[in-house]
Every structure is written in structure tokens, then in C-alpha cells.
Amino acid sequence: MKPRHWKKVIPSLLTLILLLSGCASSTSTKHSSSQETNGKVESQPKSGGELTYALATSPDSLDPARSGLAVAVRAFRTIFDSLVVQAPDNTIKPWLATEWTVSDDGKTYTFKLRKDVKFQDGTPFNAEAVKYSYDRILDPKTQAKNAVALLKPYQSSEVIDDYTIKINLATPSTAFLSNLSQAMLGIVSPTAAEKYGDQFGKHPVGTGPYKFVSWTDNADIIVQKNKDYQWGPSIVENKNAPYLDKITFKIIPEEATRIGSVQSGQVLAAETVPPQNILSLKNDPKTQLLQVNTIGLPYTLFFNQRRAPWNNVKARKAVQLAVDVDAIVKTLYLNTYSRAWSPLSPGILGYDKSLENSTKVDIKKANQLLDELGYVKGADGIREKDGKKLTLKYVDGTPNREKRNDIAVMVQQQLKKIGIKVEINITKDIASVILQNADYDIYGNSQVNSDPNALRAFYHSSSPQEEAAVKRLGGGSDQAIDKLLEAGTVETDQAKRKEIYKQVQQKIIDQAWIIPIYVFPYTVAASKTVNGIKFDALGYPLFNDVNIK
């Protein structure tokens, strides 16, 4: 047996922790623990006060296991901590776990836990709580969402003693430690989870710096200072109780209202700044604009390969060649968003830069491919075959997040040029339409993630059992892609991993499984009285250091 190494960590990607101070520009600056007030330098930021922070959409749940939305993470990251944290130098650092060992075969992780932590309801934090949290994610009764994919290949865990837990994996996973750092694998109070059951998402309890107070549907979420907190991660300066007394997350979907609320002083900060407001906010003397690109899977249109003709690569290629992504990004986002070219976003391990500019609009070629498939244009310009019009059912959700409904309209206009009729269905019921019934031809989605292993949940073939439970986006299946994704999960050599994921990206684009659209920049407009907002490695805001001048 080779000796085991304490704190064995696996770097996942190049990340940046941005500290946002109350400066005028969007460029981040290093935060100082002192600040000047009325000409006097204070050694500590001012305590007290309330931060009002406007969210662009309503969370689906504040239960980290059951949430599938990034906006929910922005709220519940304040409530829940994780075993480990991803640092800006790519390494994984202690948080609720103090140290760990990894077995030689990479399938067993043994964590030593902090002994001074308790949940906000008084429940002790210990190995039993960690085991409960992870087992709960795999329990079908929980109906967990993104957390299931993040936790894989978790198989079981053993409580060695109160503050030692052994986690067993079905296979080695290079992404496992990085995934454990994510908020959707935050540790929940077993007492509260058992007490509230399905309603835990409306009564969340963790070990985080803020305690849950209330959630009024489509209005606001309120959290307050956890006075007992003293175990903050290394990526924040304030390891103890936060400076703020409370945070009120106000849910304001309307762009103009949300940004206007910051400018009028009704809220102190607001997320997802519309492209048309970027320039004016940069020049606003009372407001600071904070921005960081998210990493993971960019906003991408997925073809549903379960349905004809989109199970044919020529039909998908025709659409790929006819959709003018540059025009979409420039028109809707005014060059404030970057165009996506790959199933992965820039900045993540293995991103294949060679895919940039590799596809271009080619209407002639698109028409040729549809001709070869036997689709003939009718008098109305729409193609037909065997008496059926060539129709593409484009589904998107409401509200119009990041102008995604507008993308549907532009695609509708562009595909008309090659004789495809696009029917747009904007629905509130994405869960039923997309995940249960797969009733679409094309649907867009994105995911914030820290490791290219995230591709596996989207592009690896599903088992019949998995498909029966949740219809994987696109439903494509390819043995070569499956083998590459499986290899990428277990490969520990970073150079080899990069090459594996480059091959995956190239195959997905070559076979036109998707059309990548844009990389989402997370933007926040904030009053200059707000100091100390940080972003974690994935681009989620952290509020441990936030104080109001």
C-alpha cells in the first residue's frame, strides 16, 4: 500500500474570486479590513443594517437538494455551508471538514469534521448530519434535482465516530471534491429536514452565516444574522458572524423596475443588469457595477433527438447552419454577453478554444441538407414531406429570463428562410413539458458548474430507469461520447482530462446535438454604500463580508 496523503486535493479549473468594494468601476479591488469614515480610519467594517438585494426570478426551492435554479443558490448559499470550499488557486480547502484522506483506488474519502459547529436550530453538526444530508439526496422521496448529478458517484457513507465520516464511491471521480464545495451539496439539519419533510424548502436550516426568517411567494426572502457563526471558509475575510443584521432578497422580474429600484434607492443591490443599462450604470456616480462571468455550461439550445426529423444529423445540421448566433448575441445583448461556441464555457478545465469561429451561417448548405432529406418548399415557403409541414417546436420558460424568449423569436425568423416553421411555446410548466414528457424539438438551458464532468449529466446515455424518472435534455446517445465521459470522470492526469473533454466537445458540435448561444455574465448593480460583496469560484455572491457604509 502506498502511504495516503492528508488533504489530498484535485484542482478542477482556473477560477477567480472577485472582491467587490464600493469603487466606481466594475473592476474589482482588494478589500481592506479598515475603511475611512468622516476622515477617521476604522479597524473594522461597520456592523448592523439591512441589505436589500433584488433577484431577477423566484427560486424554486430553498432546499439545496431539491433546487434546480441558480437564482435559488444565491439565496440559500447564505443558509448552508459545505464540507469543503474551492479556492482561487484551484485547490480544495477545508470548511466544515478540517482534513481528509483519499484511498489509493480513489473510491474512499475519509473526512475529519469541525467540532465547534451547530445548525441554526441547535442541532449538533457531526458525521451523522453529513451522512443524512448525502443519503437524503439519493432518496427518491426527496425528489432531488441537480444535487443528484453533483453527488455521483456517491454510493454510501460510514460514521466512524462523531466527527469522522468515510464516504464510498462506486467509481473514482476527479470532480468529487470540487462538487462537494457546491451549495447544492450543502449540509442540512437532519432535525429540520425530518420535521418539515417536503416543506423543508420553505423552512431551510443549515449551519451558514444567516438564518432563514421567511419566504413570501413572488415577493421576498428574508434571512438574518447567525450570531453563533464562527467557521467561515478561507475565501472570505470575516470568518465570524456577518456584519449585516439581515438580508432581504426582493423578487423583481421586471428589468426596468429592478434596476430602477437601485437607482432610486429602494433596494441597495440588484442582479442581472440588462445590457441596455450597462453603460449608464457605469457612469452613474451613485452606483457601482459588478460583473463576473459564470462558468460551467453556457446557455445552449438542445435538440430533442427522440423525435423525427431531429434524430437525423442532417436536419440538426441544417438548423445549426441557419441560426445566426452572432446576430442574436449582438442584437439582444449589445455585445455585453460573449458568444458561446462549445458545450463548455471558457475558463473551465478542458475548454476547447479551437471551436471558436468553427461554425458559420451557410443558408445554401442548410437548404441542400433539407433537400437531401426530401423536404420540399410549398407555396407558403414552408417545407413539406409526406403531407406534413417541417415544424420545429421551440419551448422556453417564463418569465423572459435573460431575453431567452426573444431568442426564440429570432430563431423563428431565421429558420423561416430555409423553410422551417417554428412554433413557440412559452410555458410556466417546464418540469412537465421538458423533464417528464419531452414535448419539444428544441429547448435552451445552462448550468453553473465547476468541472467539465458536468457534461456527463447532459450528454451521457441514460438508462431506461433514469429516462423513466427524468427525461435527459436532448436524449442523444453515442457510445464514443459515453466512453470519453466515463474516462473523464476517473482520469487524474489533468493533461489527459483536457484532451478527453476536447474530444467530447468536438463530437457534440460535429454531430450538431446542440447550438451554443451565450456565456452568462453575472452582473450586480449596487449602491456605493454597499461594501464587501464577493463572488465564489462559480460566480455566486457571498455576503459574509458585506457591510453598509
What's the SSE blueprint?
Layout: E1 19-20, E2 35-37, E3 40-42, E4 50-55, H1 70-76, E5 84-86, E6 92-94, E7 97-102, E8 108-113, H2 127-138, H3 146-151, E9 154-161, E10 164-169, H4 176-180, H5 190-196, E11 210-216, E12 220-225, E13 246-251, H6 255-264, E14 269-271, H7 275-282, E15 287-293, E16 296-303, H8 313-322, H9 325-333, E17 338-339, H10 363-372, E18 376-377, E19 383-385, E20 388-389, E21 391-397, H11 404-416, E22 421-427, H12 430-436, E23 442-448, H13 455-459, H14 464-469, H15 479-490, H16 494-510, E24 514-519, E25 521-527, E26 530-531, E27 533-535, E28 541-542, E29 547-548
Parallel strand pairs: 4-13, 4-14, 21-22, 21-23
Antiparallel strand pairs: 1-27, 2-3, 5-6, 7-8, 8-10, 9-10, 11-12, 12-13, 14-25, 15-25, 16-23, 16-24, 17-24, 18-19, 19-20, 26-29, 27-28
Helix pairs in contact: 8-10, 15-16
Give a written overview of the molecule:
26% of the residues lie in helices and 25% in strands. With 549 residues, the protein is an alpha+beta fold. It folds into two domains: 19-33 and 46-293 and 522-548, D-Maltodextrin-Binding Protein, domain 2 (3-Layer(aba) Sandwich); 296-519, Dipeptide-binding Protein, Domain 3 (Dipeptide-binding Protein, domain 3). Strand 2 (35-37) and strand 3 form a beta hairpin. Helix 8 runs antiparallel to helix 10 and helix 15 packs antiparallel against helix 16 (494-510). The N and C termini lie far apart (57 Å).
